[in-house]
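Morning. Coffee machine broken again, so started the prediction first thing and wrote up yesterday's gels while waiting. Chain of 308 residues, entered below exactly as on the submission form.
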Amino acid sequence: MSTPFKLPPDLPIIEVIPALRDALARGTAAVVQAPPGAGKTTAVPLALLDAPWLAGRKIILLEPRRLAARMAARRMASLLGEEVGQTVGYRIRQERKVSAATRIEVVTEGILTRQLQSNPDLSGIACVIFDEFHERSLHADLGLALCLEVRAALRDDLRLLVMSATLDAGPVAALMGDAPVITSEGRAYPVDTRFIEPRPKARLEDTMASAIRRALAEETGSILAFLPGEGEIRRVQSRLDGLPPDVDLAPLYGALTPQAQDQAVRPAPPGRRKVVLATSIAETSLTIDGIRVVIDGGLSRRAAFDVR
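Came back before lunch.
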């Protein structure tokens, strides 16, 4: 594999890059299974940049959330020693950083649907990568179905790649024409799981604030705490007044400005710790350096349809 830059050698996904490049050189579809932290989101698109079948065209990388799209683009651009908007750019709702030089474009799933409406044969695009496909949103499923139709009817050279951490790859590989499944084993770290006994009639916010204070006192490093929504985050934040002076508190949810979200996912400065209060926006395609403790409230807010 020859590339104009060096991918981080410690990423587990690096071991399967040659097999993936070979699969996409021989055919037009593949499925990658790789656990969280393997590096698939950033390493795979960059490793395909010099593939002959690209022929100067773009790679589209789909991410389920806007924050993940921005972070993935930023990380890939930094590996190339460039600014976002040059070789790597992104396009999300109400924001885009792309240029004529952009070869990898990170988009959210709804953007791909609109691109298919305005550019039905995906001209100028050589490969579409569906990242975190196990989340199974309506837009992702529709996007894959439409891309398969485009490949069958208009573009037999269009490469399609599905990547997932937990998906059963067999059915998706069969749907894509018995695409080869490439598996990265990843790497495991020791995890100490602890459960807090529920207190009768205790509010979630009080329990979470208590757990965060306890973790700060007993553990080192930064903390990522998952809560169902913005309201719970604000209430926990109000209960965490008087934290140690070396601890920064950072909320992270969808309604925040991009600048506030970026600030939340930056590593804590040397000598400081961070407590990130996040919704499910931080569950996938996102790594916050320095996090040693994860506290999960055990609740999530999900839309549901009631037939009654």
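The two ends are 58 Å apart (CA to CA). Going to sketch it on the whiteboard this afternoon.
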